[in-house]
Amino acid sequence: MSTLHTVNKSPFATQSLLSCINHVKDGDAILLIEDGVYGAAAGTGVSDAVAGKAGSVKFYVLGPDLEARGIPATRLLEGVEVVDYAGFVGLAVEHDRAQAWL
Amino acid sequence: MMEEGVKKFLYVNRKAPYGTIYALEALEVVLIGAAFDQDVSLAFLDDGVFQLTRDQNTDGVGVKNFSPTFRALGDYDVNKLYVERESLEERGLTADDLQEIVYEDEDDDWAEKPSIRIISRAEMADLMHDQDVILSF
Amino acid sequence: MSYEVNGQTVEHDEEGYITNLSDWSEDLAKVIAEQEGIEMTDEHWAVVNFLRDYYEEYQIAPAVRVLIKAIKKQMGPEIGNNKHMYELFPYGPAKQACKIAGLPKPTGCV
Amino acid sequence: MKFGIVVSEGPYTHEASDTAYNFVKAAIEAGHEVPRVFFYHDGVNVGTRLTVPPQDDRNIQVNWTNLAKEHGIDLVVCIAAAQRRGILDENEAKRQGKDADNIAEGFRISGLGQLIEMGIQTDRLMMFGD
User: Fold this and answer.
1) Percent of chain A with pLDDT over 90
2) CATH topology assigned to domain A3-101
3) Which end of chain C has less neighbouring CB within 10 Å, N or C?
């Protein structure tokens, strides 16, 4: 049993990503969408928090949102996987429930 | 024992009252949802814990004060209000800062029992993980 | 659109719900009830008073099942049941009793 | 698999309704079912037919209307949230004594019970909001 968490806010604007990270269980997945994709970049103030959790939960980032904001894949933290909308749907199917950190 | 077809619904409240409408409209969903006889829990974490504080008075802002409505939840058989301890502490609050919310336990000669349960962040994570449907506000 | 009660004019909406909740009085309740074709008995008043008390305490009108449960506790199962509530308020306790009690119009949810 | 979708933010200000739309399209393309989308909070504003977005941008309402028509999706606007924000169909306009309605084709106004029912009847509930 696992959960797909979605985070849609920049971690520099709200606590949603950190709160999500504090409530996930091993084997869950966190998908960063909309302004949430800013949390996927390396070398930021939240990179350590994300990298520190990346061992027990899998991080994904929504490609179209990433591209819209001009963030190249080369700037992503190691281990963060890019998915498209079909991949988003696939993640929702794979996990037992979805929780949006609005 | 869960009846067939009964799902576990969790309402996750992470926003403060009044600044935005989310808290009020979340409560409206809970009240309507109560008619569907599902297994309902409410979670209050992050700024959501501010929804339950005592002594809210909205006279000066001219907005409806809906904090008394939480006390009606027992009548709707909604009696599992989980509040995260760490979220309280981070905001300088304790359980004493929250209003008292009770329900009458039908299985215990209608004894009045507290609806608010203070739980740890780890327990909150377990609670979230034990749901069928999670509605976020 | 308005009710006339004791020489005063009280505004109401399309469906007869009063515009300003503070305009309510027992005399007004009788006027609204009359327009609804209801003659207020002690049982009607018990329901109306319960609704007003409930609203005062919780800031919402109770759901019909909550109302019925409470009336049953207060006045017994002969009165506190679904059938009897609809005999008292043929258009439904939520709509009609709330209107007479001067509570906000139900949104029409569920 | 059956998906239930909640859109809880308004169009144009937030990306939520766009993400939801793209998700629903992808889900249907992958062979899943999306029987209903429920619009709540400012999300009800997606359902007005009176928006006039610039021609070089997407038309969110029209996109939803077309998608719903093509795939039989039930687009439900919450009545309580809609009343607050001035989204009305013909019946509601009459009932409330208003001089106009604005609900778009393919959308219908109904109660919050539709949200709970969607949660009960679908396999996954996805929320898109602020």
Assistant:
1) 98
2) Hypothetical Protein Ychn; Chain: A, (3.40.1260)
3) N
